[in-house]
Structures are given as structure tokens and as C-alpha cells.
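Typical record was shown:
=====
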Amino acid sequence: MSPDIYLDNNATTPLHEDVYRKMRYSLKYQYGNPSSNYEIGINAKKSIQYARNNLAEFLNAEPEQITFTRPDHRVAALVRHKTYINCKTEQSNP
């Protein structure tokens, strides 16, 4: 029997041990603002880009297609916007 897949992630999400280790390291050492020009921020940006590249490779996607967001209402707005743009593009390129 395969393991359960937990999909009710509204408030909490169980973490895989590997994910926990990576997050713990990042939270402790790579907490800088990734938009800044100082070393700790540059390292944070590199870490985010590394995660984006790995996730894109895993999903067979381009890194530019991966967007990390906060868990709030802006995510729904972003999805609606991207869906709208994709539909317009498909309609203009039959």
C-alpha cells in the first residue's frame, strides 16, 4: 500500500526530513533580503535561485515558470492573472 498523500495544507504542512534540514540551514544562515546588494542578501538570492532551478528540473519546467509566493490571498490573484494571460495567448495563437 502506498503512503497517504496529505492535501489539506491550509494551516500546516508536514515536512520531509531533507526539506527540514535545508530550511533550517537557510533560516539560520541565509536570512538576508534577496533584493539587497550586501553579501547575506546575495547569498539568500542564490539559494532561492538554486531552489527554483531544482524545482523546475523536477517538474520539467523552465526556472522562469516557477514563482515562490506567500501563503495568502495574493496567490489566488496571481493564479487568476497567469491563467488570464495564458488564455489570451492561446486565443491569439490558434
User: Anything to note?
Assistant: Helices lie at 17-29, 39-59, 73-92. The chain has a mean pLDDT of 84.
